Amino acid sequence: MQTGDTSAVPAYPETPDSGQPPATRPVEPIVLRLAFTGTGSEYFRIWIVNTLLTIVTFGIYSAWAKVRTLQYFYRNTSLDGATFDYHGKPAAILKGRAIVFVLALAFQLAGKVSPMLAVVLALALAAVFPLLLVRSLRFRMANSSYRGLRFAFTGGDADAYKVFVLWPLLTVFTLGALAPLAHQRLKHYQHNHTRFGTAPFAFDASAGSFYGVYLRTFAMTIVVVLVAVVGGIALGAGAGSGRGAAVLAGLFGTIGIYVAVLAVGPYFNASLQNLVWNHTTLVPHGLRSEVNAGRLFYIFLTNMIGIALTLGLFLPFARVRSARYRVECMSLLARAPLDAFVAGQAESVGALGDAAADWYDIDIAL
């Protein structure tokens, strides 16, 4: 069933109390695809006004610009005929950015006054920053809704220190060897502590699957770089010996590195999106992502060309193209009508979403 199709009522799987024998009950969920209805020209008008006002106000308007941007993308994303919405207040975002600005300025000044003072302040920032990140996640979720029902993030502060401090430090100390594990723990923390109304999300991707994505991406990068370097050396040898050949070989090697980054970046992003969402559920529904790395690379490459040729003016069109493709590769595997699901959740939650949004009134622009 396509999003927004009201020509027929989908036949959802029977509930356990349907009276049907277990062997004859339907088990296949209904596939509801997400849709994105925004256009580049619409977003361009929002983007150009946001950019100009942000420049004129020396960055202060950026908080209002963020709210307008999120509202545009949320309200143009739909599922089963209903759209999402964003309710964040610009003042909360401005407050969060002011906190980050003051902390960054204090760190810069401390470094000029005394190296020891800078170290002490860095430790203080490490102690405070996870708390800010958690509150920012709570703010974003509490101000996101679908059919009038808010999302929520319930992650605790103790786990936040592990995810945002301990695992990144261990990644550095192991020279990146633990990066996939750190990434898996981050997604586990985010998704397992997010809910829609009172319905929890769940995440079950293993650390091994993250290592698979990282290792395949690393192997692709090495292969592309080696092919470019070998090709450069061969062309250099064909051009003769001497300094010119060495320069030519170095040039092709450098180009190979850039090509590797451009080529494997979309593959990495596509693989991660599919991995994360294909292992995420919203009780009792499943989620599915089918991003194609080749298609994502084409969008990424043509977006870069468009941005370069228009001196940046194609940027809002590029963002819409990327968002549309990523969103429309997502599906909800519905095991019950969403109307009944949302109504039941709303009755249980009541005004909890509004209260949470007021209590965690801070955003640091994650």
Quick description:
This protein is an alpha+beta fold and 366 residues long. The chain contains twelve helices and ten strands.
Can you describe what's shown?
The protein is an alpha+beta fold and 366 residues long. It is built from twelve helices and ten strands. It has helices spanning 40-56, 62-75, 90-113, 115-142, 157-173, 179-192, 207-238, 243-278, 293-309, 315-328, 338-349, 352-359; strands spanning 30-36, 77-79, 82-86, 144-146, 149-153, 194-196, 199-203, 280-282, 285-289, 330-334. Strands 1-2-3-4-5-6-7-8-9-10 form a ten-stranded antiparallel beta barrel, surrounded by seven helices. Strand 4 (144-146) and strand 5 form a beta hairpin. Helix 9 (293-309) packs antiparallel against helix 10. The chain is globular, with a radius of gyration of 24 Å.
State the order of secondary-structure elements, H for helix, E for strand: EHHEEHHEEHHEEHHEEHHEHH
The parts where pLDDT drops under 50 for at least 5 residues are: 1-9, 15-24, 350-362
Broad structural category: alpha+beta
**What is the average of the pLDDT values?**
82
Q: Identify the quaternary structure here.
A: single chain
The gross shape turns out to be globular
Q: Which percent range describes the beta-strand content?
A: 5-15%
Strand order of the largest sheet: 1-2-3-4-5-6-7-8-9-10
DSSP strand count: 10
Helix % is 55-70%
H/I helix tally: 12
Largest sheet: 10 strands, antiparallel, barrel
